[in-house]
Amino acid sequence: MAKITVNKDLASERAKCEFNVEELTNYLDGGRENTARRRRMEDKVLSVKELRDEIPEEYLSHKEKYENAIRKAVLFYKVQKSLDDPNQSDHERIRNSYRSTITSAIFKDNSPLTLHIVMFIPAIIGQGNDEQREYWLKRAKNMEIIGTYAQTELGHGTFLRGLETTATYDPATEEFVLHSPTLTAYKWWPGGLAHTANYCVVMAILYTKSKNCGIQPFIVQIRDEETHMPLPGIKLGEIGAKLGYNTVNNGFLGFDNHRIPRDRMLMRNAQVSKDGTFTAGANSKLTYGTMVYVRVLIVNNMANLLAKAVTIAIRYSAVRRQSKLKPEDPEPQILDYVTQQHKLFIGIATSHAYSRTALWLWDHYAKVTSELNAGKLDNLPELHSLACCLKVLSSVDAAVFVERSRLACGGHGYMLSSNLPQTYGLVTPASTFEGENTVLLLQVARSLVKAWQQMLNGRQLAPSMAYLADQKQLDRWDGSVNGIIRAFQKVARGKLAFSVANFEKYQKMGLSREDAWNKASVQLTAAAESHGRAIVVQVFKTETDRIASSLSPPLRKALDQLVELFTLYWALERLGDLLLYSPLSEVDVRDMQARYEELLEKIRPNAVGLVDGFDIRDEILNSALGAYDGRVYERLMEEALKSPLNAEPVNSSFHKYLKPFMQGKL
Ligand SMILES: CCCCCCCC/C=C\CCCCCCCCCC(=O)SCCNC(=O)CCNC(=O)[C@H](O)C(C)(C)COP(=O)(O)OP(=O)(O)OC[C@H]1O[C@@H](n2cnc3c(N)ncnc32)[C@H](O)[C@@H]1OP(=O)(O)O
Ligand SMILES: Cc1cc2nc3c(=O)[nH]c(=O)nc-3n(C[C@H](O)[C@H](O)[C@H](O)COP(=O)(O)OP(=O)(O)OC[C@H]3O[C@@H](n4cnc5c(N)ncnc54)[C@H](O)[C@@H]3O)c2cc1C
């Protein structure tokens, strides 16, 4: 094997690291065996050279990008399948794949099969009855059919009761008639819908016996299994170019009185009998279960994308030298600027915070799902609220810190060859999809207001909201992580109390409940956001304490520093709230600021080790700035030379336009 020459600054950073990087990787993977398994899988996938792009994706046309993505998706699926351990349960398979980012090595802009895996199959599992699962899951898991999740319409994404697609039951033929009565009823957005999927789960308003029975899921064939032509009564297409996700093949779909058999309604929850009698499920919101599942997964996806961005930015910052700190000294590494550390170390800490929170949430999700399967629904509202608020916070923070990583790389961060713009294109839609963030915060606020009322009635609160009942004053600011967590809880409690008081005040002033809610909604969403912050810091701290107790002292210290940095960063960001709701004084603020700066200094020698610990291979980072060897400038030039414009010294447009123009002949 050729010897890698590592940039000398990066090499000396690695020599400075105070902990064992491999131990950190094992910790993140959940053990040495998991690291080995993940690496074996990466080796195998990366050994398939047909999965690599010869021409950088960005130089392909829109159509070529899609065709190339499909070519790779098929091959990638087969390689993955050959590595699958059939003895793992679905729960274990997903948990074990939490640290896997290998998909990014193949697709810079995501795969056209994403929705098949992430929503179509889960919708059949969550919404299909036993026979439906038996039949459809086998076909879907074997890739005999490819599906997507078609819910959003041109006119409505958030407000599901406002969907216009109808499924009207016809008892004479025992069929549902699917129809899009208007342009705005067209399904719009589903990934893979345009040219990839031949089936989809369609969410439509069910009418039977002339009654609206709410939104229900239907499994609908949309293309012929042989010719792939759209079926009669179905209009399909692609929605066009987007900020990112351009290889996901998002599509539109309209129905013109398209008929499907009765057994195509997924009937795990609600049912329609042959004569058209509707039987409601135990809770109508179980129909929204696929969204809860994906919201839970998104938290982890955000942690991984952020780890990628911050790895690139930290390595680049160790290599890049710019300006002068002292006139007599050479140009320093930009990582030595404390402002640069302030921009980036929080990204490392945030990725850790959400990857710990994501695992915690996944285990909670699995527990509640098994209760739901046993008919126990009590914990569904809390799960919904938690999934909403953690999806919101992780997507907002990831977008901010990925963009900050890009900016921290100066001009080179603007290059597609840095892979930072594309990474931003992957994180930013998560603030919109799977429930627009403000809308989800309002759902969280709704659950908090309910909890507040339960508390006033002396009822027990769900564990994640139990702190609301803690009436004790926070007498003293001690600056410890646990003290700050309690302060965050006080903030959330205080903001909730304030918004509930305003909500009630507006109603007393004569506004309807709905108008009062709307008027109080800025404060309500702020309370929901604070509730989320309190949960994330607490989970980050307690889960790190729980899992890291057996680690070596140097690594334990490094992780504790990240937890403290994360806590202090948000305390300083939310000073106004803390000054309102906790006994924080001016001196305490100055102490916190000093401690924060001290932490930046302590983390500085470990910065490269911390991102090396994410163990994201060059093929996955896909970045001229972030490669392990730090050959930043050489790679930037190599990538520049791949531009098709560099294939010839003079472009034909010179003779056609520029020359006549400059010579006054045009
Ligand atoms: C080996 C496999 C490994 C897999 C690994 C995969 C790796 C990849 C990882 C990550 C994936 C990244 C890529 C993801 C691509 C995703 C693409 C995106 C797809 C989509 O966007 S699909 C469309 C999503 N759409 C939405 O989210 C719509 C948002 N709107 C809503 O959810 C609702 O309309 C609403 C909640 C806002 C309001 O609903 P409505 O019916 O009007 O409700 P109300 O009448 O107001 O009642 C509210 C009442 O209901 C309760 N409630 C609401 N939702 C739920 C729920 N889901 N569960 C439980 N309860 C719910 C709510 O609390 C209220 O209760 P109350 O009345 O207060 O008691
Ligand atoms: C990349 C990408 C992939 C997607 N993939 C899929 C898919 O596979 N399948 C699918 O079905 N859908 C998909 N979607 C659609 C996505 O789920 C919706 O865009 C999302 O649910 C938001 O709905 P909307 O676009 O209608 O936004 P809107 O609801 O119109 O939001 C616009 C604005 O209105 C505000 N607003 C709306 N309602 C309220 C309210 N009640 N209170 C306060 N403010 C409100 C919002 O906060 C926002 O600021 C995808 C979207 C994207 C971007």
Question: Summed up, what is this model?
Answer:
The chain is built from 23 helices and eleven strands. By secondary structure, it is an alpha+beta fold.
Describe the protein in words.
Helix 10 packs across helix 17 and helix 14 crosses helix 15. The chain has 666 residues and is an alpha+beta fold. The protein has 23 helices and eleven strands. Strands 1, 2, 3, 5, 6 and 9 form a six-stranded mixed beta sheet that branches. It has a three-stranded antiparallel beta sheet with strand order 4-8-7, with no helix packed on it. Belongs to the acyl-CoA oxidase family. Pfam families: ACOX (PF01756), ACOX_C_alpha1 (PF22924), Acyl-CoA_ox_N (PF14749). Pathway: Lipid metabolism; peroxisomal fatty acid beta-oxidation.
Task: Provide keyphrases for this structure.
alpha+beta; 666 residues; Butyryl-CoA Dehydrogenase, subunit A, domain 3; fatty acid metabolism; Butyryl-CoA Dehydrogenase, subunit A, domain 2; binds ligand LQNNLAPS; single chain
Please describe the topology of this protein.
Blueprint: H1 8-16, H2 21-29, H3 32-46, H4 62-83, H5 90-96, H6 103-106, H7 114-127, H8 130-141, E1 149-150, E2 166-170, E3 175-179, E4 187-188, E5 199-208, E6 211-221, E7 234-238, E8 251-255, E9 258-261, E10 271-272, E11 278-279, H9 289-319, H10 338-373, H11 380-408, H12 420-427, H13 437-456, H14 481-508, H15 513-519, H16 521-548, H17 553-573, H18 575-581, H19 586-603, H20 607-612, H21 618-621, H22 632-640, H23 652-662
Parallel strand pairs: 1-5, 2-5
Antiparallel strand pairs: 2-3, 3-9, 4-8, 5-6, 7-8, 10-11
Helix pairs in contact: 2-3, 7-8, 7-9, 9-10, 9-11, 9-12, 10-11, 10-16, 10-17, 10-19, 11-12, 11-13, 11-16, 13-16, 14-15, 14-16, 14-17, 14-18, 16-17, 17-19
Residues 115, 148-152, 156-158, 189-191, 245, 250, 429, 432-436, 438-439, 442 line the site of flavin-adenine dinucleotide.
Domain Acyl-coenzyme A oxidase N-terminal: 20-146
Domain Acyl-CoA oxidase C-alpha1: 288-449
InterPro entries: ACOX_C_alpha1, Acyl-CoA_ox_N, Acyl-CoA_Oxase/DH_mid-dom_sf, Acyl-CoA_oxidase, Acyl-CoA_oxidase_C, AcylCo_DH-like_C, AcylCoA_DH/ox_N_sf, AcylCoA_DH/oxidase_NM_dom_sf
